[in-house]
Write a structure and sequence with these properties.
This protein is of the alpha/beta class. It contains seven helices and ten strands. Helix 3 (71-88) links the parallel strand 4 (59-65) and strand 5.
């Protein structure tokens, strides 16, 4: 069972393939206009790498990150995935783009908070429970667009209310969020990480297998918007 993975919702294009629970290949490309225009060629290059491993390249499923993220970027990836899936007659596995990083945190034993820079002085904030790694999308406690101070207040509140047995981890691609959390020094019961991309290809591969096993494939994917389109 070969599953293709696509996420174009952020500053990098994430592509990969997984067979059962094994991530076979993974590629990251800068999300330039040229790369976005040639996503089909980039996807085929990743598929060629699978073939070079001696593995049959008959794609059974296509997992796609549906956002939240860049308005145009998210739409381009989902549009490509929908077109490819229809042309090949294969089902789609829609995955929230921030879930993949949250799963990475859960597998490390932390309760995850994921904050993505949404630009226009706002952020996407996701808060998740351990159910996300066993039965997605259960485990999505909240996902919302927030301003800077709302993000900081949320982190401080969770840190202060955490028990000794509960540890939090914040993953963010925003240096301003990272610097402020470090400055206020109230986040003693957890960790904070500054990353270049909120999407985790390994997290997407993990979630794709869980969703496939649960029979949650779709014939069409919709983009997840936390902000009204303008």
């Amino acid at each position: 069972m070969l599953c293709g993975i696509i996420d174009t919702s952020g500053p990098v294009i994430e592509l990969g393939f997984t067979e059962e629970a094994n991530l076979l290949v993974a590629h990251r490309y800068s999300h330039t206009k040229e790369n976005a225009q040639h996503i089909a060629s980039l996807f085929d290059c990743s598929l060629k790498n699978v073939r070079e491993l001696g593995i049959k390249t008959d794609i059974t499923y296509l997992a796609v990150g549906v956002g939240p993220g860049s308005f145009i970027g998210s739409r381009s990836g989902v549009a490509f995935a929908n077109g490819y899936a229809v042309a090949r007659g294969i089902p789609i596995i829609p995955i929230g783009s921030m879930w993949s990083r949250a799963v990475d945190i859960l597998l490390r034993g932390f309760t995850p908070i994921v904050i993505r820079n949404a630009h226009r002085n706002s952020f996407y904030l996701g808060y998740y429970s351990r159910e996300l790694k066993t039965d997605p999308p259960n485990g999505v406690i909240s996902e919302a667009e927030c301003n800077f101070q709302e993000c900081i207040n949320f982190i401080c509140e969770k840190a202060q209310s955490a028990t000794n047995s509960e540890k939090f981890a914040v993953y963010t691609d925003s240096k301003s969020i990272f610097d402020e959390v470090v400055r206020v020094s109230t986040y003693s019961n957890g960790q904070i990480f500054l990353v270049d991309s909120i999407v985790s290809i390994r997290g997407m591969a993990y979630l794709a297998q869980k969703l496939i096993a649960a029979g949650k494939e779709e014939s069409f994917a919709d983009v997840l918007y936390l902000r009204p389109a303008i």
